Amino acid sequence: MKTNKMKILAIETSCDETSVSVLEASGGFARPKFKVLSNVVISQIKIHAKWGGVVPNLAKREHAKNLIPILEKSLKRAKLLQKRKRPAAIPADQLKKISFFFEREPELLARFLAFIPDIKTPKIDAIAVTVGPGLEPALWVGVNFAKALNLVWDKPVVPVNHMEGHIAASLLATKPSAVSHQLSSIKFPAIALLVSGGHTELVLIRDWLRYKIIGQTRDDAVGEAFDKVARMLELPYPGGPEISKLAEEKFPAPFTLPRPMIDSRDFDFSFSGLKTAVLYKVKELGFENLREHPKMIFKKEVAYEFQRAAVDVLISKTIKAAKKYKAKTVILGGGVAANKELRRQMGSQLSAVSPQPNFLLPDLKFTGDNAAMIAAAAYFRALKGQFAKNPARLKADGNLILK
Ligand code: KG4
Ligand code: ZN
Hints:
alpha/beta; Nucleotidyltransferase, domain 5; five-stranded mixed sheet; 10 strands; 17% strand; globular; binds zinc ion
């Protein structure tokens, strides 16, 4: 396969965002360059908000409903959508396999068969898909979609680990039309702090595609803790952005919250104690029965102190890891990487480390789940020829580990 310039179409359905992206990648390992031709993301937040968290079966249903319209939009934006004069007939044997892939997604099958025969095979080199970790029913929709596209378009499939995607996100260009050169500045060893609603981990990257998880949360993920604390404070889901907005008003609290495991000798994290400490404060104060004004003051105080506690722990462990492994690059990734305080403090504290590691952080539009980051991660896998040997048998794995 020609690897000096590749167009990769990627699919992401691991949680509550459905996304399809087309990425143009070139330069190989030595000088990788990315151009995001399209990155369409539909968030299901509003649908899950009333349940206070992501409901797997609802997520699955929404992915199945949205994938075809998103694919169409994504191809169109990337200027790769060409309608046929007459629909192409799908051969009977292919039809049988596609019906089998979408056995549990009849709506997606119907939409697939109504759309795909009408368009010409797009000029892409590979199809990338998130195979895990994430919510398994949600992941399967994307995986099955990739299988069906592989069958009709005859393009190879690159299975991608979602967390590798969050690492690659920091390497994407910030403007859709811009070409990213940032990656040429990645030097190994690198340390990545991955923080999302499901994960909190420190990853040691000794070389391209060589990952070792050196620390992770023993209980709640940090994003999950933000979401749970927000709920205690009667703030809407997802709580991360809400807490961080209130924290920015900088209302110092008359109490301190714990920084769990900040001095432990390992690189693990724990956020459930911090969350419980907030719960005690909420109970102690009789938060529910407070009047509006004191309630608002308390929310701002908790938000400020909770965020400081979480950020302190995340940064302290990352700096410790960067020093121990003499990291030349530190990477931040995942939904919580949108947190302004974390971005700012990580940057300033890393600048005091000597020798100073290069700090890569994703543009705000690539912190949350998106398919562009999956395509970027897939590029390096494709360079190594790591395509699915038998795409029809590809599996989703909710607990997939980065290695
Ligand atoms: O990576 P992501 O979009 O989805 C998962 O793979 O989990 O991360 C979502 C998480 C949620 O817990 C959300 O509350 C958190 O990221 N989050 C934030 C902020 N923006 C999103 N947490 C703290 N501060 C933010 N600004
Ligand atoms: Zn994620």
